[in-house]
Amino acid sequence: MIEISHIRKAFGDKTILEDISAQMEAGKCNLIIGTSGSGKTVLTKCIVGLFTPDSGDVLYSGESMLTMNKHEKKLLRQQIGMLFQGSALFDSKTVEENVRFPLDMFSKQTMGEKQKRVDEVLARVNLSGSNKKYPAELSGGMKKRVGIARAIVLNPKYLFCDEPNSGLDPQTSLLIDKLIKDITHEFKTTTIVVTHDMNSVMEIGDHIIYLHNGRKQWEGSNKDIIFSKDTLLNNFIFASEFLQDAKEMRMIEASKNNQL
Question: Is the full-model pTM beyond 0.90?
Answer without folding.
Answer: no
